[in-house]
Amino acid sequence: MNGPNAPPSRLLLVTDRHQAAAPLDAIVAEAVRAGARWIWLRDRDMERAERRDLALRLRDAARRGGARLSIGGDVDLAAELAAGGVHLPAGASVAAARARLGPDMLVGISAHGADDVATAHAQGADYVTLSPIYPTASKPGYGPALGLAGLARASRLGIPVVALGGITVERAADCRRAGAAGVAVMGELMRAAARPGGIAAAVEGFSQALLPEMA
Prior knowledge:
Number of domains: 1
Helix content: 40-55%
CATH architecture: Alpha-Beta Barrel
Shape: globular
CATH topology: TIM Barrel
CATH class: Alpha Beta
Structural class: alpha/beta
Largest sheet: 8 strands, parallel, barrel
Number of helices: 9
Radius of gyration: 16 Å
Strand content: 15-25%
């Protein structure tokens, strides 16, 4: 069973206010102006009302630039805000999310191996993030890095796979050549705000790296 919605971009910006060198709404607004078209509000450790307010600001910033906001792990909040999608934790029910959100909402789920990817495909998810592809301090506890070989195997399972974990501009093209539908980037974009024009430069760099079609 295939999910009905294609990922809106090859670049997925993942929020993390703990690494961010500027307020998240400012980072997202600048990234969208620079061409980012898909944002994942992760930041799961916020108080609910505070996270709702942030989600609302990010949704509006995304909409102004024609981008889509996926809400991490909170189906009810995604429905309340009519966000662009929801990103579920590994093991969550894709069917329940789809029933709550309807057929047009983007529904993705985290995967940490080929079995997770195959399960997501069978359940009708639109895409998976697969992590960690490279070693990264932000994805502890999920075992060794899967590498490009693991990414290539997962990308042949019939569902769009978005590579996550340790992704740099230099590695993005390798992930794409390995079969990834795109890459999810957190730290590289969150920290880029420390440099004037850094976010726009980072978005442009990743976008350029992801341009070549798969061989």
